[in-house]
Amino acid sequence: MVFTDLTFLFAFLPIVWLVYRFFIARTPLANLYIFIASMIFYGWGGLRSLAILLLVLLWNYLSAKRIAMEEDRPRRRMILWIALAVDLLVLFFYRYLGVWFGFASNALSRLPSLMPLGLSFYLFSCMSCVIDVYRDGDIAPHSFVDFGVLAAFFGHVNMGPIVHYAKFRNQIRRHPLTRRKTTQGMTLFLQGMFRKVILADNLALVFAALAGNTTWLGNLLYGFAYFFMLYFDFSGYSRMARGIGALFGFEIPKNFDLPYTALSVQDFWRRWHISLTDWFRDYVYIPLGGNRVSHTRWMLNVLCVWLLTGLWHGATLPFLVWGLYQGAMILLERSFLNKILEKLPRFVRHIYLVLAQLIGWTFFCSGDIASAFAVVGRYFGIGATGAADSMALFVFSASIMLLIVCIVLSSGLSVLLGRMVCRLSGKAANAISTIGWVCMFAVCVAMLVSASAQTFLYAAF
Amino acid sequence: MKKSSSVWINSFMALTLVCLLGIFLYQALPHTIHSRQPFETVEQKVTQSLDIAVYPEVSTSRLRRYLDLDPSAYANIKFFRNGDAMSANELCIVQFDDAQRGQAFEDAAKKRIASQHDIYAGYAPEQSALMESALVDVEDNYALYYVGDNASEMEKLFETALKGGK
To answer: What ipTM was predicted for this assembly?
Structure first.
């Protein structure tokens, strides 16, 4: 089940939330109820995936308990490494074994298609718990149910945000429902749905229509369609997840903070998929020594973290190249580019960031390196078969409004516009926004019913 | 007390690990059928229960149109489809040499199922329901795509044919 399934929107979520809100929220059974609901949600997609989720949860919960119980430091470290090794083995088995060694047998080549949904997201949440408990034995989870809610709450089990145990654990014992959280939750959920169903799904049509177009305009539109689609798809999902969290009293932190308004690649990664970037910073970069090491070692640390980030997204060469490209850009910025960029006007720095990420996402979405280079070349007119053809012009005229809305929403302009509307409408602001969201929900449902909806892009990771 | 609970936890951890490894082993080991039966024999056994008037054979060149597959990439391939556009009934048997071909066939069949399902959903709900129960069975060197009544029986028939049974 995903958030845009009609079963989820009209049956699962309303029923689970209403029962929780009116009968369960203030009882000691709250977490047990959320855990059972999460298991039903996840098990809907297949019992095999549910079995793997339960085994992974059990393994990590027991490991965390065992670490907390152990007083001998070398033994604690040994248990930590065993726990992490098993987690990485699970990830390797489904994610990489089939891609790298699939040629050896038919059964192996099918393993990636058997990967449980959200495996890399909930595994990272589990690993966060084990590492945090290793660092501080007093914060071990109280019960398996509490741990299950933390790592596999149905709001974030499929596509994150990845939970950082030490930061989130206090909310597990106490997540009271308030009217403010409920309103905020519903608004976030609807905002996310708008981003996914209206923007990302329509951008997917532009992207599909221009795949294979070799003109300059066609390529540029193709690249920007993916550039915005990925953002609205994943940030839409993350908003929906935060909204669902708020409906059950949780405060899930932002996963996106207007990333395309960044002025450098380094700044971009403080705003894009924040939970993953933070995870790699806290559990890989800092333990490797961070920047408190020699210059060469620091450069290696940065490249190592970005190689792993690329690998997390996929096992194929384009993902590794994409990861190393991001790492290399950050190193260049830290070495000398920042000094040049700081002297330039803001809009030039924006153009630099947009171009840098446009090239990055081209590698990210390409099946192979050669085609990625070909598309990047055509952005600059190299290898293009002309400025535009009829198809590119048709798609451009049909999608110009969509692209303008995307630019407005991915820049700070949307926030300013929202504030202005609120100020102008005065006391009627709440009524206007409620009517607006209800209408928008109706349009989203109409699009979902017409079967024009696409799957979430990050579900593949 | 603490020692006894750590022993319990160790035992549960070992049990969890064994379960995980069991699942891995089951999924990683091949349990598909590698058939040594000739293609004609498998085809004859699979199609013997079909009414040839409902499933006339379609030339392989039209496979590109229906399944977007290159017939020359496969050792043997046969496609049967009802001539009536209002009917979803179709069947395709294929023999191949490498796993990637099997995967390509599976992807093509799934794509076909999704698109046919969408086409029929608007005006022919019974055909759409037939698409929902469509069968795609990919074995080690043979695969079958079937849309029609009694898909589960067809699956059994296909597997029996691959094993050389009657």
So the answer is: 0.81
